[in-house]
Structure formats: C-alpha cells, structure tokens
Design goal:
It is built from three helices and no strands. With about 100 residues, the chain is mostly helical. The longest helix has 26 residues. Keywords: Membrane, Transmembrane, Transmembrane helix.
Length: about 100
C-alpha cells in the first residue's frame, strides 16, 4: 500500500497501486465456466426456485424438497468435477 501523507484523503491510504493488484490477482481466475459449474448452478437454482414457490404457497414440505434439490446440485457438481468435467478437467475442451 502507498505510504499515507498528511495531505492525502483518509481513504487514500487504503488504495493499492496497479502493480500491487496485478501481483495479488492471478492471471486467470477460472470463473467456473465448465460443465460441472453450470450443472451445479442450474440444479441449485431449480431447487431455490422450488423453495421460493413453496414459501409463497405456504408448503413446508415442498420448501424442504427444494432445499434437498439444491444440496443434490452441490453433490452432482462435486462428482462431475471429480470425474473431469470441472475447469481444466480431463474431459473438457476449455483449459484455463
């Protein structure tokens, strides 16, 4: 971080230089653009939508079914990543 001086605004002492940011952030963050990532997100989104609809319909059972679907999404994503469908996996064409 830059060294604060008396004439600098208070929040300026917390600003990083471009070089410091470049050194701290890896070249490619990988953002999860993979079959495993998107499958996980879509299944979990479906579970959350089910739970949201159940909330408005006042159905506790359907709400927890939706939450279970979201947990299944996490498990499916983990399995897909383990078998090579995650970012940089052996079964994907995109290499990050």
């Amino acid at each position: 971080m830059s060294t604060p001086t008396a004439d600098m605004p208070e929040n300026a002492k917390y600003r990083l230089t471009e070089e410091q940011v470049a050194a701290a952030v890896p070249e490619s963050l990988g953002h999860g653009h993979s079959i495993a990532g998107w499958t996980t997100v879509l299944i979990m989104l479906g579970g959350c939508l089910i739970s949201a609809a159940a909330f408005f319909l006042a159905s506790v059972t359907v709400f927890w079914i939706g939450m279970a679907v979201a947990v299944v999404g996490l498990i499916v994503g983990w399995i897909l990543r383990r078998v090579g469908f995650g970012v940089g996996g052996s079964r994907t064409s995109a290499r990050h």
